[in-house]
Amino acid sequence: MIAVDTNVLVYAHRSEFPQHRAALGALRRLSEGPAAWAIPVFVLGEFIRVATHPRVLSPPSTTSDAIAVLDELLSSPSVRILLPQDRYWELLREAIRESAARGNIVFDAQIVALCREHGVVEILTEDRDFRAFRGIAIKSL
Description:
49% of the residues lie in helices and 12% in strands.
């Protein structure tokens, strides 16, 4: 199973990014395919935050549009939302310590902890910061 990072969702949603077509195609293949794929729960809120932020996107997406994007993705029968389970805190501590995560990298450590808890070893992302974490393969667009 592969997990999808926030930046891929943003690129797929917004046509002004050079990665738009690749991201949209990747999400279509995942959502229409039979193999299970995942969105970490924290990515849902982060997508809405980025997509609607006026300092990040001009013009920003409306909240309704951002929610509609997620509703459509989450209607895929093969998608799973990765939620924290019993080992989450232990795995988050481990990810933070091994990568010396601080600041914005702590968000990535949260994603890594969720992936590890659910046995996900690959993440679709353009964020190179994930290289700081062992056992997580980065799949680029």
